[in-house]
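User: Predict structure, ligand FE2/S2 (inorganic) cluster.
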Amino acid sequence: MDFNEAAGTNPIDQTRVVGHAHDRVDGPLKVSGRATYAYEFHNEAPDAAYGYMLGAGIGKGRIEALDTAAAEAAPGVLLVLTHRNAPEQGKKGKGSARAQMASAEVRNFDDPVAFVVAESFEQAREAAHMIRVRYVTEPGRFDLVAERGNAKKPEPKGSTLADTAVGDFEAGFAAAPVQLDVTYTTPDQSHAMIEPHATLAIWHCDRLTVYTSNQMPNWAQHGLASILQMEPTDVRVISRYIGGGFGSKLFVYGDIIITAMAARKLQRPVKMALTRPQIFNHTSHRPATIQRLRIGATPDGAITAIGHEVWCGNQEGGTFETAANQTRLLYAGKHRMTSHRLAVLDLPVGNAMRAPGEAVGLMALECAVDELAERLRMDPIELRVMNDTQFDPETGPERPFSSRKFVECLRTGADRFGWAKRNPKPGQMRDGHWLIGIGVAGAIRENLTMKSAARVTLDPQGQVIVESSMTDIGTGTYTVHAQIAAEMMGVPMERVIVHMGDTDMPEAAGSGGSWGANSSGSGVYAACDKLRRVLAQKAGFNADDVVFAGGKLSQGNRSVTLESLADPQGLSVEAEIDFGDLTKRYAQASFGAHFCEVGVDLATAEVRVRRLMSVAAAGRILNPKTARSQCIGGMTMGIGAALMEQCVVDTRHGYFVNHDLAEYHVPVHADIPDMDVIFLEELDDKSSPLKAKGIGELGICGVGAAVANAVYNACGVRIRDYPLTLDKILPHLPPMV
Amino acid sequence: MTDARDSVSFLLGHAPREIRGADPTMTVLEWLRGKAGLCGTKEGCAEGDCGACTVVLAETVGAGLRYRAMNACILFLPALDGKQLITVEHLAERALHPVQQAMVTYHASQCGFCTPGFVMAMFAAAHTAPVVDRGAVDTLLAGNLCRCTGYRSIADATLDVCAAPVDDQFTEAEATTLAVLAALPKGPLALRHGGRRFWAPDSLATLAALVEAYPEAVILAGGTDVVLWVTKQFRELDAVIAIGGVAELRELTTDGGVLRIGAGVCYTDAMAVLAGLHPALGELVRRIGSVQVRNSGTIGGNIANGSPIGDMPPALMALGARLVLRRGVVTRELPIEDFFLAYRHTALAPGEFIERMDIPILLEGAVLAVNKVSKRPDQDISAVCGAFMVVIADGWVADIRIAYGGMAGVPARAPAAEQALLGRPWNEATIRGAMAAIEEDFSPLSDMRASAAYRATVARNLLLKLYLDHAA
Ligand SMILES: Cc1cc2nc3c(=O)[nH]c(=O)nc-3n(C[C@H](O)[C@H](O)[C@H](O)COP(=O)(O)OP(=O)(O)OC[C@H]3O[C@@H](n4cnc5c(N)ncnc54)[C@H](O)[C@@H]3O)c2cc1C
Ligand code: FES
Ligand code: FES
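Assistant: Predicted complex:
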């Protein structure tokens, strides 16, 4: 099914099932520990051997000598794989896959040096630590600040260009009566999902099956095939349940590749999980950024020039953090420029983490806007409203937004949160030894769509079975697929069975970039649409005005039950949704606004978020329960980014020092007040037949800035170097008495 | 220990189990997910930080069962001996347990990987004490990280289902469970695995004899530090002596104005008594680790590991606590500040161990303040921990004890600051003098938790706060 024109009225609009707050269908399995994650397929491979990865202890260099004798002789050990005996591999593949242990070169800390396989996990671990490695270390580039001068203009990242320019920014900024020129920095961050990356690899002759935890099974399938130099059709990737990803599991890392190589060598299933410390340095992270914002405005607040320059780093060949992206779309302004510069760093690979680009870009932009408001003596909400735009400001009115309720989000939030009570002068509100402040920030997240296929089968009992390689990383996709199929086929949700996360099923969009539910849901829509036509025809109905309801299809006063139309072996159809150029013709994004109240302790500078509320407009909300939880989860991660999350770089040895959950802080319960989210009514007919937009990442976008703006309002301290930890704030606090 | 058993006996759910010959330094989590094939219990970090591995240990206390949430990843197998191990699988043997149902209803599980840990922590709470407000939820679940839900739904589920004690299949089976537990073999353990030895004596005398005989052996209390040596630092422990089975060390008594806490008393058991001594102590203990960590960790372990950032020593110094150390049949007493000699170096002699802490009960009118300052409000190690005990008589400082953690290589008193206060009028000028004097007492270091400048400023600010809070 091609989606090239705005959607008309369709069965989803009935909203009998879609749009309602259904419990997640996989809930009972998950709460009773019966959902099977990657490491837990005991029955599929009762004889699996256990692997343990030994990662490099240096940031850059090579292995000079390797003594594996003791490990090889250790009890239970079946195989010690190193660069000396690793099979030949392809260099690169889809999903950022790259060869593992292909040479003595150490590309980054915890790049695998050896992989020990043994009868038990303890034996593998023990043997791995008997391996003696001598390295030659090479000087590495580990410090973004130091390398900033060497940063270069990178190749486009997909369709995202490094630079854009409209008008004459330099002249426009120079001429602006009010000018702001500030630089913000954001640190490297870790996804810190709770399930570690894990893989079980099983070979059946020359066909490989991997059970793994991956958001994009088809990428993994192709990536793995390239590295192992085999046909993708001979690789099957299964990711039924994924214990969180946030981008970390978009890609293919050592666990998948090495486990597959070892299992092939041993002709025996092998499984392994990365240890928590290994996750930080071996897999990807959100790269640090330096962001310079220059905004010029008239004294009454109209932005005339806006410039956003970003510097970040990555390994050779790596991509850049698109942190200036939102600045291309969020506010009006005649003269504009954005740029991204990429330095080569020898740190672990940087890559996508929840809302890549916007999550950190907005932390800078939305604070800068607050700073501008103060300079203008304007209310920060009024400044944002004044500079709203209903079209892509880089292109012009010929590219309107498909839907944009940014101003409504700000206004609704201001109302509900009690914005009017805020004192614009910092440091005026006190509660005991706490200074209290309120802040706001806008949110935008580009709406991405990806083609997606699904198979729908009507079985002889009248059950509808939905299959695709789509994944549910906690977002609720199992449930949303069931809702869409139930809506389309006119059956209750209990009559729908959803299977996902298997590359032997039709290729779906996968989970990333907030495109999951909307794109893959549209794939299910397309397949159901096809099945409806087939059934109508079989029943001898004219396809266009058949009603599917109550397990029947009917026209006029004639009706037929679904099961009576199914073949004994079931009736199956497959279809794909293909998104045309609507995202080119229309700027598409979800919008929101966050309102935050914090307290700052006068004696210690501890910051506590007391209230946080978000208003979101993201097209049709397919399931308010799952959507709300997605937003609150994102907001929580935004608080983390504002106040605590940071991979601390050892710039001498080139690794992230705080590589565990004790020292890489993510919010705990006490960090998070009872937060709420309000959804505005919106249907976006240019986004998909479902009229929904992406929501999984919107929640995090802008929250950091709302917190930082609240901190400023509380105590008058503006920290432009995230996270806002207590030692950065304390020196600037007013005296306690 | 001639009469010792060489196997670990416990109940797995409702089924008696005996484990013989296993590595006694294998964690309960490794055993569950490996040998036992029970993968409902998850591994998120393997070091006590995330709570995904939370299981419940039920044990006979008085006439009933006591349920406690534990991190299976920082529990060696022998800790199961004599207890009932309950995992998420056991809850749903018939239908979803009310706790599990609430997690579904409130959409409190997204990716689901943290969920079994939450379920078990909530299950233990539902059998222990009602959870009445959001603050109680924060405390109950501080040790359970969820990266997906943002906690709101989990808190709502908890407030709903843990507001009152639940009646479930475990309550129903209580009499049987008690009987089966009573029938499990009892007595000391002496386990062997290859060259590795593990003893769990059941009397103070045997413990003392063992520690004296094997001075190189590692003493194991709650294991919240020791287990990480194995799972994180990959140390091989050749000889371990566990103190958990020694009844004398679990005693908590008050005697002649002194509170005596045995070295084997876990934080959870000490918490109520300490809170009774002073609310600030209860609050301090509440912020140590998490429920799971407090259910096994001990104050004795906190002192003995000699860390500069252990949370109990500063408070105990402010209180004037004394340690009772034992070697064989000989005991000696030491003021706690004399215990810490240098970074991770203590006054314990080979073959000696901590038997108990003696804490004088605060005098009428004495002011006590304890401030744990950390980046994260819960589940975090202190950047600075300051503890203050002051007696003000007629506007003059009659007695003062000040101690800090995180300010030096060991937790320590602040003699110069104390000197600047003692015998002076209790006013802002005096306090300012003491704040200045802290610079003579400490020159803190910078690390990931805080900068040296931050520590120095906060150490001073806490003194000022003490004054402002008790100016009248
Ligand atoms: C997730 C997590 C969070 C934590 N949070 C905190 C925190 O907030 N604040 C804090 O201070 N600590 C914290 N800790 C550290 C630890 O929990 C405490 O230090 C705890 O008190 C240690 O007690 P234990 O009984 O578990 O000691 P163990 O691990 O059993 O032993 C610790 C050390 O003491 C020795 N030892 C134990 N008992 C005796 C004895 N009777 N005589 C002689 N030596 C003995 C052991 O040999 C070992 O060297 C945390 C740990 C974890 C895993
Ligand atoms: S696995 Fe994280 S606390 Fe045990
Ligand atoms: S539901 Fe994913 S970590 Fe909690």
